[in-house]
Amino acid sequence: MTQRVAIICGGRSSEHEISCISAGGVLAAINRTAYEPILIGITKEGSWVLIPEDHTMAIVNGVLPSVPQNAPAVVVDVAGFSSGGKDLKIDIVFPLLHGPYGEDGTIQGLLEMADMPYVGSGVLASAVAMDKSFAKPIFASHDIATVPGIVVKEGAWKSSAAAITKEIAGLGYPVFVKPARGGSSRGTTKVKSADQLPAAVAEAHRFDSKAMVEKAIVGSEIECAVLEIDGAPQASVAGMIHIDSRFEFYDFEAKYLDGATSIELPAPIDSAIAERIRNSAIKAFLGLGCSGLARVDFFLSEKGEVIINELNTMPGFTATSVFPKMWAATGIGYSEVITHLLEGAQKRTNGVLGN
């Protein structure tokens, strides 16, 4: 007997379109002998709708997909999901939402109240991982090196820009300015001198009233995927990100629109360092109390230091995304990863009384 899986995508965050692409990937790869997918979208305005399976969920001629506004409405509450007055009879939820209003613990709280099994981390881990300013001290408390930086709130910048600029100078340029609770590098700017700070801070604050300013680390970007299999977190092989020389850093366009980046698997690094990265990825996963899956991003400095950048509780999930690629290189295919996540969701309780 197949189980009905609600694949939820879109949302109100700046990563709406990336979420839709991820959902299209899962829709194409899910094992339909065991699962019946039901595609549910959240529009940019926050309306919930039932998306027809023939709706385009991929990039076509450079145009990113989005949730259609004129699809049938979905009602979601503590009783579950319904549309047109009919119960959708959902057994499991796969919330493929990136960024605020989805990856940050909000939808996880709703699903907890509805007592609905779902893929991924619970409320607390999702919320903490989303806010990098809170995640960093937790990583540090577990002896994982973090990037030096400071938090810049919008109100503080308006009243004390000169003092904050002086504090940032102490980090040494260049620095990166980014939203504290964003993703996909949207709102992120590389700043090489103090005169570039105001525009960069304003750009970050467009996405989040709390910005992070961090010292630029000279070295390589290394990523590692974590997947729970039979209740235990496993780390994939580590991969090295290569960025086209046209791009200064791993920004949104480089990640999604230009095909300008690639990942080398396994990363061409010393085996002892690779193992340290894999161990650190699991340590970060457990330290935040994560469940299901995560992609953990590191810097490997020119001095050989392993420094965590961030942990993503719901990374990009298309067949060509980094997370599935790392597992494919480790020996677990895309469809099998999806099955592990759905099976794990039914065995685990993420709520405060469950773990």
Automatic annotation (TrEMBL):
PROSITE patterns (UniProt xref): ATP_GRASP (PS50975), DALA_DALA_LIGASE_1 (PS00843), DALA_DALA_LIGASE_2 (PS00844)
ATP-grasp domain residues: 136-343
Annotated keywords? ATP-binding, Cell shape, Cell wall biogenesis/degradation, Cytoplasm, Ligase, Magnesium, Manganese, Metal-binding, Nucleotide-binding, Peptidoglycan synthesis
Q: State the InterPro entries in the record.
A: ATP-grasp, ATP_grasp_subdomain_1, D-Ala_lig_Van_CS, D_ala_D_ala, Dala_Dala_lig_C, Dala_Dala_lig_N, PreATP-grasp_dom_sf
GO MF: ligase activity
Q: Which domain of life is it from?
A: Bacteria
Major localization class: cytoplasm
State the pathway, as annotated in the record: Cell wall biogenesis; peptidoglycan biosynthesis
Q: Which Pfam families match?
A: Dala_Dala_lig_C, Dala_Dala_lig_N
Does Ribosomal protein show up as a keyword for this record?
A: no
Q: What cofactor(s) does the depicted protein rely on?
A: Mn(2+); Mg(2+)
What EC numbers are recorded for this enzyme? Answer: 6.3.2.4
Q: Which family does it belong to?
A: Belongs to the D-alanine--D-alanine ligase family.
Q: Which HAMAP family match?
A: Dala_Dala_lig
Q: What does this protein do?
A: Cell wall formation.
- The protein here is known as D-alanine--D-alanine ligase
Species annotation: Candidatus Planktophila versatilis
- Which gene name belongs to this protein? ddl
